[in-house]
Specification:
about 120 residues; alpha+beta; 5 helices; about 10% strand
Length: about 120
């Protein structure tokens, strides 16, 4: 199989994937795959503080992975592009089928796999 070389600079890809590199941000993105949500909804999903959830949302906004719309006193978040949901599904498949050593990898600084216990 021939795979086309990416046309995006590796540093740009690294910044993009940084947005996906935290378990809390992944929980937020997975929740938004189901539809738009408020910060209050996302706090309940992540089980994190309002401040922590807002910081992760700021990262996701900065990376262009989510958008925000103000509706009265509420900010509503949604995925910036439906392909992000596809990317998360593909990541699940690749992790399950190919990246069998990811749970035992000691060569990188992986964050805790569970959003519980982090503030």
């Amino acid at each position: 199989m021939t795979i086309a070389a990416p046309v995006i600079a590796p540093a740009t890809h690294a910044t993009f994937f940084h947005g996906l590199s935290d378990p809390c941000r992944l929980v937020i993105l997975q929740a938004l795959c189901e539809g738009e949500l408020t910060v209050t909804d996302l706090i309940a999903r992540t089980k994190r503080s309002q401040s922590n959830t807002s910081n992760h949302l700021a990262c996701l906004l900065g990376c262009g992975l989510v958008t925000r719309e103000q509706r009265g006193k509420y900010a509503v978040y949604r995925l910036a592009d439906a392909r992000i949901a596809t990317l998360l599904t593909l990541a699940d498949e690749v992790t399950r089928d190919v990246a069998t050593g990811v749970d035992t990898c000691t060569l990188n600084d992986r964050p805790s796999p569970s959003p519980e216990g982090r503030s």
